[in-house]
Specification:
The chain is α+β, with helices and mostly antiparallel strands and 197 residues long. The chain has seven helices and four strands. It folds into two domains: 73 residues, Glutaredoxin (3-Layer(aba) Sandwich); 104 residues, Glutathione S-transferase Yfyf (Class Pi), Chain A, domain 2 (Up-down Bundle). It has a four-stranded mixed sheet, with helices on one face. The longest helix is centred in the middle third of the chain and has 30 residues.
């Protein structure tokens, strides 16, 4: 397998984390997340979104989007529940991550770590909405060990990726004790690798 990847991307990290936990081997091919000038040439026939992560299976089939890749590899493992409702809850949290969390927690991190110039008002508004997403996760984790069915799943992997580096986007996790405890539980899972592995 080949993973078109970027080491700083939380979306790519989700895939690398699950593959590590499943003990699967793959080749990494790094693409820049700032200079995207070669994306059509490299990913044009593989992923219509021209985004990383994009994974090419040994048989040549390609799959893009971190959530789709997590679902593909998680299916039939302990990382995706058998119960239909719990499966739907996993998807609920994964959709929440992509629509309510990632745009507001990951984007400020991208701007700040990559030195992208953005006005303070725009940054502050992203962070304000990012805190709302973190509030929602905190509220749920206050009464739960994990996001779905009291066991670790790809929902946890999806939310962990950008939450555990939220400080790099200017977020203060000090006010989120349940999230901090959950981050420790996720980091203690067998096969865990850090984002910079």
């Amino acid at each position: 397998m080949v993973l078109f990847d970027n080491p700083a991307s939380g979306n790519c990290y989700k895939v690398r984390l699950l593959l590590a936990q499943l003990g699967l081997d793959y080749e990494r091919r790094e693409l820049d997340v700032v200079d995207r000038s070669n994306r059509k040439e490299v990913l044009g026939d593989l992923n219509p979104g021209l985004r990383v992560p994009t994974l090419v299976l040994d048989d040549g089939r390609a799959l893009g989007e971190s959530g789709a890749i997590l679902w593909f590899f998680g299916e039939g493992t302990a990382y995706v529940p058998d119960d239909p409702f719990d499966r739907a809850k996993v998807l609920q949290w994964m959709f929440f991550e992509q629509y309510s969390h990632e745009p507001y927690v990951a984007v400020p991190r991208f701007w700040l770590t990559k030195g992208i110039e953005v006005d303070q008002e725009t940054l502050a508004e992203r962070q304000r909405v990012g805190y709302l997403a973190l509030d929602g996760v905190e509220g749920h984790l206050a009464d739960h060990e994990y996001l779905v069915g009291e066991r670790y799943s790809i929902a946890d992997i999806a939310l962990y990726a950008y939450t555990h580096v939220a400080d790099e986007g200017g977020f203060d996790l000090g006010r989120y004790p349940a999230i901090r405890a959950w981050l420790e539980r996720v980091a203690a899972q067998p096969g865990h690798v850090p984002i910079d592995a």
